[in-house]
Protein 1
Amino acid sequence: FAERILTTMKKWLLLIAFCCAGLIPAGAEEPENVPPPPPPPKSEKERRTSFAIWRAFSSLPEKERREMVKLQRTDPEKFRKVMTEKGEALLKADRDRLIELRSMVAEYISTADSDRREELYKKIEANVRFDYFKRLEENRRHLEEMKRRARGLEAELNKREKNAEAAIKARIDAILRGDPDPEAPRPHPRRKK
């Protein structure tokens, strides 16, 4: 029985090898328009910094956020530098608050004086409350941004749905003219190559 399974597996492997052999001709070189491989995964520090940049950007007042968007379009390097500084400052402030919280907790645990413990408890509570509501507000802003994007996507979808017949006719005309693969992905209109 085991020999039969092994023979069947060998047949399947031969069939797969035979089918795959014709996919890449011998001596074929890579085409010239091959995109570069994806970048290596970001380090933990880079991920933390990019998240901090997002947090810093989303916490900016609306007017300053608009100015930063203009800067991003006109001088992307300067934008990246400014936002990286803001993100790193935010991370430093978070680290400092955490260090302060840990020291208060350590003192709370080691203190026998009930008045001092009560005072520390109130400080710890205020610290935790501040952080909690700060994150809650960040989450609310993030949700509002996602809703705004969803409304934009829905409007675009409705527009495409409304223009479906014209788009279908245009695609048929392109196919009949012999245009190169109308189904091929097209570059994003706002992104440069």
Protein 2
Amino acid sequence: AIDAQGRRLSALHAVRLDAQGDEVWSYARPSLRGLSVARGRQGDTLIVSNLPEASGETPAFELITLDADGKALGVERVEGLCAFATAVGLDGETIVVGRDASQSFVVSSYDARGEELWSNSLRDAYHTCSECKAVGTDAEGNVYVIGDAGLFGFAVGDDRIEGNGNSEVPSIFFLASFDRKGRGSWGRRFVLL
């Protein structure tokens, strides 16, 4: 990121702006790579930021909770997952989609202390999805993940998401649904022509 004076920022830097574009508050934390920001149910701000990985290290991210004034309420380190996208669940939990140390894609739910509430791998016995793009929730607490199904596909609930089989075929995208406890409900595939 670059600040208003053209200086390169080497830290996670979150800024809340009002409707006129004026800064309300800012928050900085050194040596992190900002990933995603979500608005919590009580006006708080949730930030997921991956920690730099050295070769062979277990992936990890920080779950940062800021109050309505931009003050840190908590910073929790979560081991074992490199995060790609985040959303806020029905009860205020943080839903994160990422890749674990075995290179499997995972959708997980965490409380404010960074404790895992549930986790579900987007993989079957031999294959995993290629890339998760986004995660969201609905009014009933269901979780939806969209991404690229990869070459071989994977299973969600009773549905099998078939991949593209080879790189000559157009991309196959998926939409997968999980209930509020993380159980796979259904999955659909879409061919991008």
Protein 3
Amino acid sequence: NGTANTYANLGGLAYEQADYAEAERYHLLSIQIRDSLGFKEDATQSYTRMGEIALIRENAKEAIQWCTKSCDIAEAGQFWEAKLACHRCLYEAYRQSGQFERSLGEYEIYQAIQDSTDKASNLQEAIFQEAKAQYEQQLAEAEQEKQALVDRDTQIRWTLVGLLILSTLISVYIYRSNRDAPSKEVKEKSTIN
């Protein structure tokens, strides 16, 4: 499939440079390889590109054949991007051939696919945003829990420091009281004598 991708890429480059004969040659090679290997989704890109080349050459009949082949594969495999491209190509081909009713039908299919793709994309974005909001909420809650633990630890430390200071003051008071107590007894005895 690597060779087929290379041919398709070369065909795309040639198409962008308006070298449609070269683009056609590379896309045909890519189609042959991909069809033989069964890479149907990848082949749809080249089929559609062949239809676009036919449109540029104002060969609407050939464009319809190529794009119909691409749409058949895309519809069978539910390849959304390929379906979008081939129906856009068919819309242009039918419009170019003067089959305006069919062109309008293809445009409606194209638009419906585009809308459903947009809705799916919007749904994915909404799901992503919801998941992101939940993650941020969980992160904020975790941060609050962490801060609460830090605050509790700080409060415990200050409580312990306060208790240490209080116990030191009490110890100093008791020590001084006991140190001064014998001298008071001696004074009392000497005063009695």
